[in-house]
């Protein structure tokens, strides 16, 4: 038997997708929904939290639950596409905020990810991706200084891949990827808009040059409501 909060959630989704609640419209209050569905306030809150996590509504303190456009962006899993390239396909231009850019000696974890020796240094770059005024991605990039001797904040605000390929003439060839779902850590909570969300999707990228040199490790930490991770597979015979 379906849980009561899921039945309410499914009914509200049906109404939103049918246009009965237009984008930017307010849903009925928790009290009104409680009376309408003849259930507890806690059950209504669980249904609304799930709607928020799926990108149907935004909870605004003092106002209530506002219906938002539910459009997930296709993020290719198997391709090597920069955020800047993905942004060009969006109707609304996102914003990149460079939170940190520094050259440092990596800790043990980053040494292991990039197979570094004790003398190697890395560029540590932390960038927040903002879409429609919401901070939804935290990109944490680590680049081996041996391959990238110089980089600036302006380059990081635009496209690192564009700089590597067209200014440094590096040939980026392939990547190994790992996708996991975790609870957000304190940095995620501080830098991203995660109210109502209890998980983030993390894509770990190990990026290689044409000569198979591993030169970049990236953790791209996504709020789960904005993206649909897609791939194409063909069965071999």
The whole-number mean of residue pLDDT values reads 88
- CATH class label of the largest domain: Alpha Beta
| Residues in helices, as a percent range | 25-40%
CATH topology annotation of the largest domain:
Chorismate lyase
What keywords describe this structure?
237 residues, alpha+beta, Arc Repressor Mutant, subunit A, Chorismate lyase, six-stranded antiparallel sheet, two-stranded antiparallel ribbon
Structure summarized in a few sentences:
With 237 residues, the chain is of the alpha+beta class. The chain is 28% helix and 32% strand.
3D structure, described in words:
The protein has 237 residues and is α+β, with helices and mostly antiparallel strands. The chain has 2 domains: 4-67, Winged helix-like DNA-binding domain superfamily/Winged helix DNA-binding domain (Arc Repressor Mutant, subunit A); 73-230, Chorismate lyase (3-Layer(aba) Sandwich), CATH 3.40.1410. 28% of the residues lie in helices and 32% in strands. It contains 8 helices and 10 strands. It has a 6-stranded antiparallel beta sheet with strand order 4-5-6-9-8-7. Strands 1-2 form a two-stranded antiparallel ribbon. A two-stranded parallel sheet has the order 3-10. Helix 1 crosses helix 3 (41-53). It starts with a helix and ends in a 7-residue tail after the last strand. 19% of the residues are buried. Residues 2-70 form the HTH gntR-type domain.
